[in-house]
Design goal:
Length: 208
């Protein structure tokens, strides 16, 4: 009888040790996910702080339609609130909007040559690169964590212990496509002058 009791106690102790090891492992994996997400949040906040200066600088050179700047402002606000997927979507849309602004800036030599604009462009591109880097790390940790809570024996303990599946910080296919620039958002004065310039020169040659 004593031997049987020792065996039962040994089995119970082994089960407890396994549960503790699994629990600690899940805690470590979840903390890595949360830490990686915190790094993304830092970069999103940095981008959030840079955008107002960019809008003011661009507005001083190129007269965008109000809707363009309003859209960027809304995306800037939504990037700091909501779930992981909400922030990911806002970040992706904001990336497209900023790429369009930088592409259109090529049409304005004075804006392109502005030291302030160049600095903001470099800082935003650097932030974008950092977001991409930490996003990769975050998604790797999410994959590792999700696998751990969905595979046996983790799946048996994850639910009762309060471990929930984490979302990936994803990039939609449209963000991977080349940026399409719509010059109709610019005021007619600058674009018309640029368009009429070559025509006037051509007419001048014909008159001669």
């Amino acid at each position: 009888m004593a031997l049987l009791e020792y065996i039962i106690l040994g089995v119970v102790a082994l089960i407890v040790v396994i549960i503790v090891l699994i629990y600690n492992s899940l805690i470590v994996k979840r903390n890595r996910v949360q830490n990686a997400w915190a790094q993304i949040d830092v970069q999103l906040k940095r981008r959030y702080d840079l955008i107002p200066n960019l809008i003011d600088t661009v507005r001083g050179y190129a007269k965008y339609e109000k809707s363009v700047l309003t859209n960027v402002t809304k995306l800037r606000t939504s990037i700091m609130s909501g779930s992981v997927q909400d922030k990911a979507q806002a970040n992706n849309q904001l990336s497209q909007a900023l790429k369009s602004i930088f592409a259109v800036a090529e049409n304005y030599p004075d804006l392109k040559a502005s030291a302030n604009f160049k600095q903001l462009q470099d800082e935003l591109e650097d932030t974008e690169n950092k977001i991409a880097f930490v996003r990769t790390s975050y998604n790797d940790y999410v994959l590792d964590y999700n696998n751990a809570i969905q595979e046996f024996p983790g799946n048996v303990l994850a639910g009762p212990m309060g471990f929930q599946k984490s979302d990936f910080f994803t990039t939609p296919e449209e963000e991977k496509q080349p940026v399409k620039v719509d010059f109709s958002d610019l005021s007619g004065d600058n674009t018309q002058n640029q368009a009429q310039g070559p025509q006037k020169q051509q007419k001048g040659k014909q008159n001669k």
